[in-house]
Design the sequence.
């Protein structure tokens, strides 16, 4: 973390103001100057879409949106838009005013601009899946276009998530790359 950002944040998360382990987050696009924000690690995974957004974890946004730091304002606007189905977030968005330039920045390459754009893959038991996880088949599956049958209990290692479909992953069974529905999987610990 550079000295200027450390001095500005005081070592705290610039969003929730908690004294926790903070990391530098670059608010995209990089065409805007001073686009770095100090955020706590607990929020970073939600900002980046690696974890589902927990509305209760973001209740501080109506305070954070009034920050004098443009990058913090942009990030607050984007997360409020992600949570706009929550009444408190909708109310905050109604009263939030951003300069035209900052609003254009917030709308450009908006991480998590719409909650519907967030794809979270979960196994048949509700566990969140990540790229590289290992899973176990909970049902014997016949692979379309092949005479391969993936048996119940088969371990599929190093899975890849299908980007635009939360119900599918890719994995290798008997050396063949196949698409598997997440409802027939259990994450292996």
Sequence:
């Amino acid at each position: 973390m550079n000295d200027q950002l450390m001095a500005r944040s005081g070592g705290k998360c610039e969003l929730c103001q908690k004294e926790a382990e903070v990391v530098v987050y670059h608010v995209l696009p990089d065409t805007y100057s001073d686009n770095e924000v100090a955020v706590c690690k607990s929020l970073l995974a939600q900002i980046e879409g690696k974890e589902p957004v927990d509305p209760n974890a973001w209740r501080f946004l109506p305070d954070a949106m009034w920050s004098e730091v443009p990058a913090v304002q942009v990030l607050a606007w984007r997360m409020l838009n992600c949570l706009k189905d929550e009444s408190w977030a909708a109310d905050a968005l109604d009263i939030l005013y951003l300069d035209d330039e900052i609003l254009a920045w917030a709308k450009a390459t908006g991480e998590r601009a719409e909650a519907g754009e967030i794809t979270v893959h979960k196994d048949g038991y509700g566990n969140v899946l990540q790229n590289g996880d290992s899973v176990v088949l909970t049902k014997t599956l016949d692979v379309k276009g092949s005479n391969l049958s993936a048996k119940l209990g088969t371990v599929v290692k190093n899975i890849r998530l299908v980007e635009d479909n939360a119900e599918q992953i890719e994995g290798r069974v008997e050396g063949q790359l196949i698409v598997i529905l997440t409802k027939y999987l259990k994450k292996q610990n």
